Structures are given as C-alpha cells and as structure tokens.
Amino acid sequence: MSVKEQDIVKIIANSGEGKMKAFEALKCIKTKEFKKARELLKESRQVEVDAHNAQTQIIADALDPDNKEAVTLLMVHAQDHYMTCQLARDLIEALIDIFEE
C-alpha cells in the first residue's frame, strides 16, 4: 500500500469514527444527556482533524505539477465518508441546540 493509499484509508477510518461518535451524541439527545452529547461531538471533531490533515496533504500533493497520480475511486470513497461525517456532526449539533432549549 502506497503512502497516498495509507492517507486515504486514514481519511475513511477517521471519518467513520467521527460519524460513530456523532451518532452516539444523537442517542444522548433522546435521554436528555446534552452535556455528554456535546462531549461526544467534541471528540468527533477532534478525530476529524486527522482526516482533514490527510485530505489536505493529498490535495497539496495533487497540485504539484510533477505529480502524475490520478484521482482514484478509493479517494472518492474517502471524500464521501469525510463529507458525510461532517454533515452528520453539524446536523446533530443543531439538533442538540434545538432540543436543549
């Protein structure tokens, strides 16, 4: 597995973990554990930083005119996981705000 592929897998793994924590936070809304929900969202955001850093490195490498690597289906898959994770976290954060009031 190349370094680039390792970074792509890191995006997928970290995004999956971040999304899992976000959905755990959503379950906390049901039991009115808002403080715990916010802690889980904070953890989700922290895990996403690793995904973001890997993504940024891949994008920076792609902008190098000497880089001849094409975008792979694996990278598209990783982007899908990352964007879904961010969307889930943002929506769940908004739900916490709504139900906490």
Structural notes for this entry:
- By secondary structure, the protein is mainly α.
- The protein is built from three helices and no strands.
- α1 (3-30) runs parallel beside α3.
- The chain is elongated.
- The N and C termini lie far apart (49 Å).
List keywords for this structure.
mainly alpha; elongated; 0% strand; 101 residues
SSE inventory with pairings:
Blueprint lengths: L2 H28 L3 H30 L9 H28 L1
Rg over CA atoms? 16 Å
Globally, the shape reads elongated
Structural class designation: mainly alpha
Distance between the termini: 49 Å
Helix amount, in percent? over 70%
Spell out the helices and strands N to C.
Answer: HHH
Low-confidence stretches: none
The tally of strands reads 0
What is the percentage of strand-forming residues? under 5%
User: What's the pLDDT, averaged over the residues?
Assistant: 91
